[in-house]
Design brief:
CATH architecture of the largest domain: 2-Layer Sandwich
Helix content: 10-25%
Strand content: 35-45%
Oligomer: single chain
CATH superfamily of the largest domain: Pseudouridine synthase I, catalytic domain, N-terminal subdomain
Number of helices: 6
Largest sheet: 9 strands, mixed
Order of helices and strands: EHEEHHEHEHEEEEHEE
Number of strands: 11
CATH topology of the largest domain: Alpha-Beta Plaits
Length: about 230
């Protein structure tokens, strides 16, 4: 069966940031049912909703810019006003998850995992002495860190993945590459001698590079969550 693919943008703020990606997936499955959005399912003995998420958000981090792509059957999509989806879905989701935008994808559009090349982050933390450490990181020719990859410890130079880095008031702001190898905020903070447990980390944007321009998968005011209101329990 052919389908229409809709991309949704949502925020994940507050206590729900401690919810794992797997549990968030279940939340969305329930929300589609509660909102009466007919999602297309896979075939086989264990059919699953045809929903694909963007880059995973580490547990404990907040975000203004999370995304998922959902397949709707042609019959379900016929006559659907995509702009009504945020208002229909947000009340069916837990407090802290707000759907802030939606659009229909062109046929054959690349996946989020393939297209997103970098993410912007902000970190609330004690900035005492941090500007000097930021300058040292930006001035380094190489920045080697050891991390786990597929069960093995690998040493990588993370400096090329730091696209921008600055202290702004009581926050650290950074843009980190996701390709060819992604850099996690916790790894950057470790290089700055900061414990991620002492910080509030928030993703503010995901970026796609297209025809020489940088765009978002669904563009809007990232801090806007107009549909936060009464939700299903």
């Amino acid at each position: 069966m052919s389908s229409v693919v809709v991309r949704l943008r949502f925020s994940k703020l507050g206590k729900v940031r401690w919810t794992s990606h797997r549990d968030v997936t279940r939340m969305w499955e329930r929300a589609f049912r509660r909102a009466g959005v007919a999602v297309q399912y896979t075939g086989g003995f264990s059919p699953r909703p045809k929903v694909s998420f963007g880059l995973a958000l580490p547990t404990g981090h907040e975000s203004f810019a999370e995304y998922l792509d959902v397949h709707l059957g042609d019959a379900a999509a016929a006559g659907l006003d995509v702009l009504t989806l945020p208002g229909r879905l947000t009340p069916a989701l837990p407090t802290g998850i707000d759907v802030t935008g939606a659009l229909v994808l062109d046929a054959g559009a690349p996946s989020l995992q393939h297209e997103v090349t970098s993410c912007s982050w902000e970190v609330e933390l004690d900035t005492t002495g941090l500007p000097q450490r930021v300058d040292a990181v930006l001035g380094a020719a190489a920045l080697m860190v050891t991390r786990e990859r597929k069960g093995h410890r690998v040493t990588d130079d993370i400096r090329p993945a730091i696209r921008s880095l600055a202290v702004a008031g009581d926050r650290l702001v950074a843009e980190l590459a996701t390709q060819p190898r992604g850099l996690r905020p916790a790894e950057l903070l470790g290089a700055l001698d900061v414990d991620v447990a002492d910080c509030l980390v928030r993703r503010t944007h995901q970026w796609i590079e297209r025809d020489g321009a940088r765009v978002e998968p669904v563009s809007l005011d990232a801090t806007d969550a107009p549909y936060a209101g009464t939700r299903a329990s």
